[in-house]
Sequence to fold (704 residues):
Amino acid sequence: MAKIVTDVVCPFCGTLCDDLEVALSDDGKEILEVYNACAIGATKFLHSQASDRLTRPQKKQEDGSWKEVTYDEAADYTAKMLVDAKKPLMYGWSSTSCSAQGVGAEIGEEVGACMDNTATVCHGSTLIAVQDVGVPSATLGEIANRADRVVFWGCNPAHAHPRHMSRYSIFPRGFFTGKGSKSRQMIVVDPRNTDTAKMADVHLQLEQGHDYELLSAIRVAIRGEKLPDVVAGISKEQIYEVADTLKSGRFAVIFFGMGVTHSLGKNHNIDIAISVTRDLNDYTKAAIVPMRGHYNVTGSGQVWGWQFGFPFCLDLTRGFARYNPGDSSSNDLLVRDELDAVFVLGSDPGAHFPVRSVKKIAQLPSVCIDPHITPTSAVSKMHVPVAFVGVEVGGCAYRMDNVPIETKKVVEPPEGMLTDEEFLQLVLNRVRELKGAA
Amino acid sequence: MAKVILTPNQTPTLFLEAENITPDVFAGKDAAEIAALHGFVGKTTVTLGDYFTIEGAGGQTAADTTVVINGDVSRVKYIGMKMSAGELIVNGNADMYVGGWMTGGKITVNGDIEAFAGLGMTGGELIVNGNAGNYLGAAYRGDWRGMQGGEIRVSGNAGSDVGTFMRGGTIVVGGNIDVHVGTHMEGGTIIVKGDAKTRVGGQMVKGTIYVYGDIDVMMPGFQYRNDSDLEVDGDKGRFALYEGDMGERHPKKKGEVIYGQLYMKY
Fold:
């Protein structure tokens, strides 16, 4: 009979579902089934069981082939690369625990690195907007219990955060939302007719790239001012109607994603969406929550926030933290040839960055720390596989609403494999030795 | 007026951060002392002498010091940052933060500059005989005070986010401008002599924007008021006045609500 582990936290997306159940083999060594998870989350657990999984670091040879090395050799190579570089980039940090991020921050400070997380190509623009205008927010629990006007703007949780709507935003029967989805008005703003849009009470199918104008129009409508006949392809009647729907609710919430954070205007789109939320608070209660992607990208912003004062795009080269996305953001640094080494942990820029940035990674000394073989590991000079956080080792992660949740260890990692925190500690010790401070 | 001439003798492999290149720092120093001033390449500390041949000497004060850079400094950041007086001439392209937080004096760049020039500047003149990048005269991240005084003149085109959170001073762009002009503007004047794209004056509270050419998409929060004949920066013409952004908060003065003003030339 299979052994069932309950209350497992899913280390995939920012929804951080904490109700998974995992069936293990009798000896407790193998994961057989994952219950309650979405298809993506279940696959992450089962993928850790792959028989062809890489279990030791490997170094790329002159001829392009890979040679197995020990963790100590890999740590030595990584430490030397970071110490020798004038301006190394330490990127990623979103698919690992807060304690590993903390050790990474210590290394970054020792070697004077530029540090950036996946927010730089994701919700970094949200962080910039929050610095500019603040943010009225709420936890997902509060939203599940109270929100009766739910807006999804430029995001598609049906596919990207599959259990978001069932756990928090649309279907749960909460304290003040006893009729589940019937107690809520769902508004989706998206130029595409997505599966989320198909579920909506109102779908505003705006012209692509005009979110800023439409958000501005909603602000004008909330104040009862005149509007042009059509804004962003949406009629003014419909805009006034949506503004009234939002104002008449007891609790409105706006969820937003890549459709606004990385289309034209970026931080300005979020800035004005936050302003809409602020305006709504003159009439009712309103909150805004970003649909964060990686399960602990929020945590990486938290850790750096309390360590350095800035959530991403850190430049520690002078020994103190400087910050200016556009200058210290990883893609700008790569494309402008500002770096001489690249270290990646818990992210896959090879798949997510523009190809001209990836080409630079391929040309520079580079280390990739990732359980999987990825496009990034393929272009790196050293690949260090580590245990899966949330599957083979526990650790703290922050949900998209900034709630910290401790993930759970379900099975042992393959024999002799290190966790990323253990490997980072090896690198940190070696860095200190090289700098003569140990 | 004492003159210091800097001639680049090598291109930095990464980027040189040289906030010491200002009349304020050069004042009272001879060529050798200026050559010994530090800069940064990544985490290494270098001297200006490593990257420039230096001739002449600084004057008694910043006000009687002129700094001339003869050559391309497109891989050098922070030129003229926080300068308060004197003159700085760049005969070539320059990188980011030219004249950032400057309070006085005059910078002339005979070439193109990159982003964040004139960031949060409070006084002085920044003349660019070429194109400018993004965030010209804007605010630093999270700051609600963009450009507060002085003048920026760009003969060519400018990038996006010009004059974000601007509170005073004047920005004149001779050519075209990218998206987001005067976002969150609370004062000052922006004159665009070419075309603008979209998002002109979004979330604008106060201040004035003139656009001579076209605007691709007008912000929905602007309302037409009237036509008038005006002389703007020496150019006479008939302008249509729009006020907004109606979605934003606006202060009252003598019982009247003050809006941001957007003039479009016929």
Observations:
- Chain B touches chain A at residues 13-15, 40-44, 77, 96-97, 115-116, 134-135, 140-142, 144, 165, 179-180, 183-184, 198-199, 202-203, 217-221, 223, 245-248 (CB under 8 Å).
- The two ends of chain B are 45 Å apart (CA to CA).
